[in-house]
């Protein structure tokens, strides 16, 4: 399978995601932020973490309006799978492909730690082997990971089983302990933790192996 | 024609920056009830009428400058 990996100025988890993709014998395809791409040329898209455009204006705001994201939007609208990790999750929320927003951590600190997560609703493409209620341990590294959505939006997330992952111990003040969400069609997903940083025991854990 | 745009976090949202600054000021014995922190953007436009300038600014706001889910804005004409 060919998996597109977006690159913006400031993306810094691109090689980690490339390794994850190769680990599962898929072919990584780089997608440059200034270029649109043929949506037939890849089977899935991953938007890696980092600090795209230096987090200027709002995290993910500038990246979400870049040419590559217009192709990602077109790709997503066809029902094709898109995963956003950390800054990638912020970009997807800013682009409106995922509901809600990621705001500054409650304690203002940048958190770099391991987090214990629970699968609220499994996704059929990314992490399809995961079971509802399963516990995972993944690294987190973010300053703006506090998920927020208005009350009516939160109700919709619950009603449509769009909450993907929850923190077992909330690290950042995220609403309802949300660590990852899906769109209504479930083909676009985003999470703040980093599965690509947990692929082997020497990395501290290998629960990231469940995500492709 | 120069314009200023004040962007503030919505009241319903926890303004963690504002809360931290408020805490700092209070710890240092300044008298205040609350503090909120937003951002300010200056734009210099070629538009000759206020009406057209405001239409353009609104387009820019909707395109990228603010996130309606978490922020509100006010626009003001600057005489610089």
Could you give a short description of this structure?
Chain A is α/β, with parallel strands linked by helices and 212 residues long. Chain A contains five helices and eleven strands, in the order E-H-E-E-H-H-E-H-E-E-E-E-H-E-E-E. Chain B has two helices and three strands, in the order E-H-E-H-E.
Can you tell me about this structure?
The complex is a heterodimer of chains A (212) and B (80). With 212 residues, chain A is of the alpha/beta class. Chain A has one domain (2-211): Class I glutamine amidotransferase (GATase) domain (Rossmann fold), CATH 3.40.50.880. In chain A, 20% of the residues lie in helices and 27% in strands. Chain A has five helices and eleven strands, in the order E-H-E-E-H-H-E-H-E-E-E-E-H-E-E-E. Chain A has helices at 14-23, 61-64, 67-77, 87-94, 151-159, and strands spanning 2-7, 27-32, 44-47, 82-85, 101-103, 111-119, 135-142, 146-148, 163-167, 178-182, 188-191. Chain B is α+β, with helices and mostly antiparallel strands and 80 residues long. Chain B is 35% helix and 28% strand. Chain B is built from two helices and three strands; from the N terminus they run E-H-E-H-E. Chain B has helices at residues 16-27, 50-65, and strands at 2-9, 39-44, 71-78. Chain B has a three-stranded antiparallel beta sheet, with no helix packed on it. The interface between A and B is medium-sized, with 19 and 13 residues.
